[in-house]
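Quick one:
INPUT:
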């Protein structure tokens, strides 16, 4: 038999590069459909092919390497709009001057996870924000919690530098107790923290304890502003514009409200939005079931009449539920029952949204590739919707800056709430709120 032609056994000349795995080929095709990133595809696929040649037949390694490399090359362009949704730069200054630090009083015994989680959040805040903390609590329990969580060294270091001051208190107000218990427990941590603000030894107070007791203590110790019948709890909700949240009040202080209460809430929210959130002319809306003036219950109709005649604010009309997060309003006013339902609903949105997205992502290698590209962006979306990132709500209408935290607050929530307290204290909002009482007209219904 004649010898075989050596060229017949050779690999055809057109097979000059290793065959990509199916997962990598799908990845390349997916990105080539996006004209905006065409110039970057070659770089990403070359890196992925190199990873494939090293990993051999291990498809999982190919997918992971391709996702990591392609993500680092393509993500800055492809997902920049999603990145901007998070808004603002959260990086703190490298150094904080002691002269810039403001004193804030903290109820260290308030909350389901107090005092350990509250102390941890305060230490984080001291490291990141220009503030000092007067931590009010039962000393033995605070020290025991610090030792259990490994915070003793950090706590002692903050005390030595003058950034943390431990203030001893008596038995605290428990979460299940009635609000009026603050009258009997005069040396409770929440009362002593309020006294620090009243005496000028702190510019703001924060508590994650019994919200009814916090409100009662604030009224008894700090007093109401002139012309304000009932204080309101105001919470910041995210909107389409990451740099401009909407202030919703009341979200739980007054279950049954009068039109005069809502009128005053609007005035309080208008000043806070203008001074602290830096909105030149806040658009104030009334939460209702329709845009028309005649819509809603008796409370909404009468409140609409009051707000439409108010010259000290810009009343933008009724705000339907779908418009609360639209960015069309800067302040939204409602009774405490409705506002609290709205607040609790929003708190669940972040976790539910991420759960739905995880369930809808393809499984297997394709799902891993998609998750590799979307993970950081989904975290930023959750960060915007996570109530822990907002930390707390403002108690507006009392003669002092008071921030009420969620009962389940942990370190992140405490840090966020103290950032909110510092922001309010550093903008001189109390001067304008106090002046409101001197110009307020008599409103009665």
């Amino acid at each position: 038999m004649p010898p075989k032609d050596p060229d017949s056994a050779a690999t055809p000349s057109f097979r000059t590069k290793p065959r990509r795995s199916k997962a990598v080929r799908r990845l390349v095709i997916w990105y080539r459909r996006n004209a905006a990133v065409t110039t970057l595809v070659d770089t990403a696929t070359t890196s992925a092919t190199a990873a494939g040649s090293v990993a051999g037949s291990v498809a999982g390694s190919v997918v992971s390497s391709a996702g990591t490399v392609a993500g680092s090359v393509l993500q800055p362009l492809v997902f920049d709009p999603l990145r901007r949704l998070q808004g603002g730069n959260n990086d703190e200054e490298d150094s904080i001057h002691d002269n810039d630090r403001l004193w804030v009083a903290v109820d260290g015994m308030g909350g389901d996870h107090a005092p350990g989680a509250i102390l941890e959040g305060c230490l984080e805040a001291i490291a990141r924000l220009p503030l000092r903390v007067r931590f009010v609590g039962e000393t033995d329990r605070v020290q025991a919690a610090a030792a259990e969580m490994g915070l003793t060294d950090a706590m002692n270091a903050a005390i030595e530098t003058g950034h943390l001051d431990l203030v001893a208190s008596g038995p605290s107000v428990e979460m299940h107790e009635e609000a009026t218990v603050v009258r009997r427990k005069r040396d409770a941590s929440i009362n002593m923290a309020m006294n620090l603000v009243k005496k000028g030894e702190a510019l703001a107070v924060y508590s994650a304890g019994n919200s009814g007791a916090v409100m009662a203590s604030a009224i008894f110790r700090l007093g109401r502003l002139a012309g304000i019948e009932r204080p309101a709890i105001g919470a910041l909700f995210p909107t389409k514009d990451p740099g401009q949240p909407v202030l919703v009040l009341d979200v739980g202080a007054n279950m049954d409200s009068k039109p005069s209460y809502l009128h005053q809430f609007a005035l309080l929210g208008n000043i806070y939005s203008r001074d602290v959130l830096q909105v030149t002319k806040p658009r104030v809306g009334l939460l209702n079931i329709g845009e028309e003036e005649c819509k809603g219950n008796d409370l909404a109709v009468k409140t609409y009449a009051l707000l439409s005649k108010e010259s000290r604010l810009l009343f933008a009309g009724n705000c339907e539920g779908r418009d609360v997060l639209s960015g069309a309003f800067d302040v939204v006013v409602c009774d405490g029952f409705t506002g609290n339902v709205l607040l609790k609903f929003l708190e669940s949105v972040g976790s539910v949204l991420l759960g739905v997205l995880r369930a809808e992502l393809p499984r297997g290698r394709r799902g891993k590739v998609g998750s590799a590209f979307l993970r950081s962006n989904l975290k930023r979306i959750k960060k915007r919707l996570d109530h822990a990132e907002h930390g707390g709500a403002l108690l507006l209408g009392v003669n002092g800056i008071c921030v009420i935290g969620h009962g389940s607050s942990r370190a992140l929530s405490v840090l966020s709430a103290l950032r909110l307290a510092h922001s309010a204290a550093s903008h001189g909002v109390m001067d304008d709120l106090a002046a409101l009482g001197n110009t307020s007209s008599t409103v009665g219904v």
